[in-house]
Amino acid sequence: MKKTGWNLESIVEKLPEYIEKLKTVNEVLLSNLVMVGEIPAPTFKEAKRVQFMLDRFTEAELQNSSTDEAGNAVAILPGKEGKENILIVAHTDTLYSEKIDHTLTIQPNSVIGPGVGDNSLGVAVILTLPFILEQLNITLDSNLILLGASRSLGRGDLEGLRFFLSNTDIPIIAGVSVEGVQLGRLSYSSIGMIRGEIVCTVPEEYDWSRFGSVGSIVTINEVINQILEIPIPKRPKTTIVFNSIEGGTGKFSKIPKLSFLRFEIRSESDDMVHEIYQRIEDITTDVSYRYGDDISLTIYSKRRPGGIEFSHPLTKNVRSIMKYLNIKPRISPSTSELSAFIDQKIPAITLGITKGDRVDDEKEIIEIEPIYTGLAQLVALLLAIDRGQCVDDK
Amino acid sequence: MTINKWLKENTFHHSRFQNINDLVKEKEKQGLNLSLCIPTLNEEKTIGKEIVIFKSELMTKYPLLDEIAVIDSGSTDNTRDVAEAFGADVYLAKEILPEMGEKKGKGENLWKAIYQLKGDIIVYIDADIKNIHPRFVYGLLGPLLYNQKIQYVKAFYERPLTTSHGVRPSGGGRVTEILVRPLFSLFFPELSALIQPLSGEYAVRRTLLEKIPFPIGYGVETSHLIDVYKMLGMEAIAQTDLDQRVHRNQQTRDLGKMAFGILQTVLSRMNSLGIISELPILNHTLRQFQTDDNVFETVEYNILEEERPPMIEIPAYRKKMGYK
């Protein structure tokens, strides 16, 4: 419900003051970033990072600091009235194995290291938010639920956030998903998606004396050729992405027995995603039959398309806040946390906090200075939601 | 005090002091000023992180530290700029007590910190720690804040390989196990209970720091332990387990130089304490060897362990502190 005496102007006019104050909390955020970022957290192995979050929540004297069966870290910053609840979430897992060096380096203008932007910064923001609001003398009327969501990436398939949303009995009025990069990111809708893996195995009784091109790489190549012949419509917008391919042993003398292909089908239409998936399934059956190899097809994750409208007050207010802060919005559909909110019909958006480069690289780098603007944007959005500015009257 | 009694009573784990609020209360009750000193020489990669973490956790969130100072030996990289950018007080060692001249070595920075910093307790932390954490500071301050008898707290680093409670070997690095512990076992057996006598992290009360001399090079840690032990006994020394420390690994040849410096310091201490007499004039050249096309060549290093006198003997310091 819209609260009287509040409008977006009264919120954004305070932003310059907030940015100046946010510069003074710089080291607290960076300290959280380093401490959380140096704890390796590949998907399904986030427990240590989650424990760190829980320790911090307890230290900040938040309510209900706890974990759950899906390995999430959750706590509540109670609101003045506590009648409504806003959920702010960052995924805790990263793309990096615990075997690589997770040391982060801080330079005057940047922080460098694996996963620093995706998504250690997002987690650090969640951890620092209670301190930030305190420094800005802001007490929300609504409860703010802080969630470190585990098992999000790849085969995790958003398990943590889905579990939380399916099992909590707290009604949530809006969700905000925080990603470290890029500042300006604005995702309010999710596209339909299926991620899958095709595995081609040459059977043991294979006729090794036969001539011509042989081995699992040839078979997987045939699968690719046939997938490329699938007609892709212009409307609804649809793409097939080959994400990675592996095959063979790396040796000349061996005929490859095993090959993998990982792919993603994305479309604005759920029907189109499933239609293409069906075609791929038919292709694998056909190629398997003709080549005599075993071909398996496994789905790792699925997303249904959906989300809020471009004109929804939540999106509109974010765009206005960005405009006020001179942030150029990068509007893009998302395949991340947003779709878990969409499944539960909770209006939600994804925001980025700063500029970064070399994402998905061990030398990932983020800039420090834009963080203040990114945080101001987040605080303004939370205030706008809290003061009832983002409710869709329709 | 027996070694086992000392190990039981004066050896701590950092987790015992992790309630920083309680440490702050204790500090305020005793009216103490606490300083952190980070000696540096070309540490631009790690210094920013150290300052951010200590400032955030031990100044902004909990007012445990009253100052964070970097004493730099003249870095040629961006160490001083990075440290300043994150809010440390940055000093060039040669600009502190300039009338005393300039000597090169970490011990020089530690010694000059006694003059420059205002703390009743100074915590020294090396700048090359990759896995920095607030425990490095509060783990060393804890014993001093809770036990008035303790004057000098040394860090050691142990990470249990398993969670079993069985016996497992424990100890220091190569120079400790090959040189320092055998030397201590021969001449100062009680000091051999220090698990890592060469660790560069320790916290000391000013009232003690100002009374001990400072070798400026490799021997500073060893000489401190001998001097404190002789002045106050083992009751004044404690050690805290800070878990794992990740840092640059040193080459064996560099450890040779370290061992050469330490040996000079220990011999001269033993001489002045009358443990050995008629020490010949020591040669300060360390010779190491390398081959070039199967021809052996000598590489010579001049390693002279110079020493700064106790700070309390320096007139400028006495004046600053108001001592008569």
Please give a quick description of this structure:
With 394 residues, chain A is an alpha+beta fold. Chain A contains eleven helices and 18 strands.
Order of helices and strands of chain B: HEHEHEHEHEHEHEHEHEHEEEH
Q: Please give the oligomerization state of what you see.
A: heterodimer
- Count of DSSP H/I helices of chain A: 11
How much helix, percentage-wise, in residues of chain A? 25-40%
Number of helices of chain B: 11
Mean pLDDT of chain A: 91
Written overview of the protein:
The complex is a heterodimer of chains A (394) and B (324). In chain A, the strands form 4 sheets. An 8-stranded mixed β-sheet of chain A has the order 1-2-6-3-7-16-8-15, with helices on both faces. A 4-stranded antiparallel β-sheet of chain A has the order 4-5-18-17. The longest helix of chain A is centred in the C-terminal third of the chain and has 22 residues, at 270-291. Chain A is 35% helix and 25% strand. Chain A is built from 11 helices and 18 strands. In chain A, a hairpin with a 7-residue loop joins strand 17 (356-357) and strand 18. Chain A has helices at 8-12, 15-23, 26-37, 47-59, 116-135, 159-167, 216-228, 270-291, 313-324, 338-343, 369-386, and strands spanning 63-67, 73-77, 85-91, 105-106, 110-112, 143-149, 174-181, 185-187, 189-190, 192-201, 238-247, 258-267, 294-303, 306-307, 330-331, 348-354, 356-357, 365-367. Chain A has 2 domains: 8-190 and 305-386, Aminopeptidase; 192-303, Alpha-Beta Plaits (2-Layer Sandwich). The two termini of chain A are 12 Å apart. In chain A, helix 2 (15-23) crosses helix 11, helix 3 packs antiparallel against helix 5 and helix 7 (216-228) runs antiparallel to helix 8 (270-291). Chain B is of the alpha/beta class and 324 residues long. Chain B has one domain: Spore Coat Polysaccharide Biosynthesis Protein SpsA, Chain A (Alpha-Beta Complex). Chain B is built from 11 helices and 12 strands. Chain B has an 8-stranded mixed β-sheet with strand order 1-9-6-7-5-2-3-4, sandwiched between helices. In chain B, helix 3 (44-60) packs parallel to helix 4 (79-85). The relative contact order of chain B is 0.14. Mean pLDDT of chain B is 91; it is low at 160-164.
